[in-house]
Fold this sequence. Notes:
single chain; 692 residues; alpha+beta; Helix Hairpins; D-amino Acid Aminotransferase, Chain A, domain 1; CATH 2.40.50.140; 6 domains; five-stranded mixed beta sheet; 20% strand
Amino acid sequence: xxxxxxxxxxxxxxxxxxxxxxxxxxxxxxxxxxxxxxxxxxxxxxxxxxxxxxxxxxxxxxxxxxxxxxxxxxxxxxxxxxxxxxxxxxxxxxxxxxxxxxxxxxxxxxxxxxxxxxxxxxxxxxxxxxxxxxxxxxxxxxxxxxxxxxxxxxxxxxxxxxxxxxxxxxxxxxxxxxxxxxxxxxxxxxxxxxxxxxxxxxxxxxxxxxxxxxxxxxxxxxxxxxxxxxxxxxxxxxxxxxxxxxxxxxxxxxxxxxxxxxxxxxxxxxxxxxxxxxxxxxxxxxxxxxxxxxxxxxxxxxxxxxxxxxxxxxxxxxxxxxxxxxxxxxxxxxxxxxxxxxxxxxxxxxxxxxxxxxxxxxxxxxxxxxxxxxxxxxxxxxxxxxxxxxxxxxxxxxxxxxxxxxxxxxxxxxxxxxxxxxxxxxxxxxxxxxxxxxxxxxxxxxxxxxxxxxxxxxxxxxxxxxxxxxxxxxxxxxxxxxxxxxxxxxxxxxxxxxxxxxxxxxxxxxxxxxxxxxxxxxxxxxxxxxxxxxxxxxxxxxxxxxxxxxxxxxxxxxxxxxxxxxxxxxxxxxxxxxxxxxxxxxxxxxxxxxxxxxxxxxxxxxxxxxxxxxxxxxxxxxxxxxxxxxxxxxxxxxxxxxxxxxxxxxxxxxxxxxxxxxxxxxxxxxxxxxxxxxxxxxxxxxxxxxxx
Length: 692
């Protein structure tokens, strides 16, 4: 990026971030997700690091929060309330540590007087990063005097009356003779602590259920409820929300007469112990880590086990444990150098659309695909995102060159969620659909919302059909990926998918750079998959609109491929989960002479298990399940099979008709949608109890 382009990009980013921060932090009415906002801030931070001459005092990277609401009195914090910079990977964390070590050595600060600072000289205290609202509490003479929000870091909102409704926050600090005494050398006997107000998952679900019953809008996340609750003008409403709190920071020195004199508190780990001694609720899951490897283990553990917690977290906070080193490191902008928020992989991120390509599908459908600047979403690097069809591009208002929010639909497929048009420079280009197939040059035809290539012999269509046939949900040939399929087609070794079963080792060995042993293994792998279940066989045929679940419904209702072949249109219409569009697709496929010819050829080469599916009992009859995220104890297909055995139904999308969403590791948008709709979410443990 050129210097002048970077300057313009920084200005655009500042405007967009300030707009969305105001919606989020002040009005509690966000238009984009936390993850998307974090992604924009990360891009701005990186650009400012690269071009520090463009960093200004009013940059969002130099601020903490939003302006206080007018309904509350303003409170000036005794010390500025800071926030944290974010890290999203192990590489980011290592870079942070390297910056710390470099600074320590430059300042001649280390664990020992004469030694240069090393990675081993820096240890850490790790805290769970709660999805709540930061607060400050001031006690005078042992009594809670003031409770306030962070606000802009210097001035917050006085929410004392509402804070007093939180049972976890003590209204009075009792100090028996053996306890810690406050520094009596000060004019006022003050105790200043900081922490987080949050709401439990259970309470979050309960409140949204009530909102739904009243016909009111549901809350997007627990943080929104927590923020909205402490900002209620009537404390009685706040009390009904059953807020909770963790205290994690101490801003007051203690008298040396009780062993906690000035300079006697050496670590952040000690701070947490003192806070607990004073009667504050602290997080027992926090942990001391002696090095980055232990930090990574702590992060990984809670990424996998976050659903077991009764509250939401979005990462961990890593703090240099030694207070002397922490203070020497100082502050940069809005954040202490000695602490960082190590976020879990984002469910959404922002990036730029570099181009829009057309992909020819196995049914001839022309699918626009966005080519993206590489970006990580839930730990996976995304470079492309499906745009489905021309109408979807129009709906999004997407142009080539736009900055967009990217997610993973169904926890897997990258998709563009929103266009951030406010970041446009004027150089963006409109998308224009092709008139002819990019593979065979046949004139495209539009049916419903899709442009299609009508040429049944189109090479690109045939290639995609091979990919589908060999995929995991179909025949699942070991070692037969797209690259090898391409070589087989390019060499003319196969004409249709049934030809795969006729391949010999000698045929494949002729392919350039294909070892004889590898050829033999591939032939063996194909031969081992000649026996296939009826649902997988139906799916492998590549019939338009037929996914895994529909293939299962057809298999369950007909029991054999011959019955499906001879069925009438009305026979398909009678199936509960099959609508008229799908019914027509199946019927028309089995009405085509070329398809029947291919089918008969294929059937001669494979063995189809025509055993009808049998329900063991009706324990789950009438219940519909949606699965999201990775299950640890079983494959997803095994979980689906168990649900079916007990009479339950499977759906690929969440709706108001969904009974349960089963949530594994790294869930995506389905979990969020379930929360918004008030659908019950089951952990893997809870799910296993149901399907016993």
